[in-house]
Design brief:
Layout: E1 16-17, E2 25-26, H1 29-39, E3 46-51, E4 55-60, E5 83-84, E6 90-93, E7 100-102, E8 107-108, E9 115-116, H2 119-126
Antiparallel strand pairs: 1-2, 3-4, 5-6, 6-7, 8-9
């Protein structure tokens, strides 16, 4: 969080607060425009607040349109699905070693039913 009393461009007294995030202030509109390429990377429509009842939470600092995305994350796991191979048939990928498995060689883990290519890969996944 920046010091709202100091312009991040020149260090002078700042009185013009960013209306989008209210977390930074500038001494002039010109300096706000000049800093936008850097500030837009951190300009968020919410502030993190804290309450004894609910702990930390996000509070909007301006009106948001329905459907506004506030957070995007990459998945931490991918569920395997059949993929077309060069020959056109579907194949799965062993989750342990990444080997391509066609339907005739498909083996499912006895504990989780996810595809594995051999007993050794199943043992790695289940810890047996």
């Amino acid at each position: 969080m920046s010091d709202l009393s100091v312009c991040p461009v020149c260090g002078e007294k700042a009185t013009k607060i960013c209306t989008a995030c209210q977390s930074v202030a500038y001494c002039s509109k010109e300096h706000q425009r000049e800093d936008w390429s850097q500030h837009q990377k951190i300009c968020r429509p919410y502030k993190i607040r804290e309450s004894p009842e609910v702990g930390q939470y996000w509070a909007a600092v301006r009106d948001l349109e329905a459907g506004t995305i506030l957070l995007e994350e990459s998945p931490c796991i991918f569920i395997p699905q059949g993929h077309p191979s060069k020959s056109g048939d579907l194949f799965q990928t062993c989750l342990t070693c990444g080997t391509e498995m066609h339907s005739e060689g498909l083996r499912l883990c006895s504990r989780c039913s996810w595809p594995v290519c051999k007993q050794a890969c199943e043992e790695v996944m289940t810890g047996f």
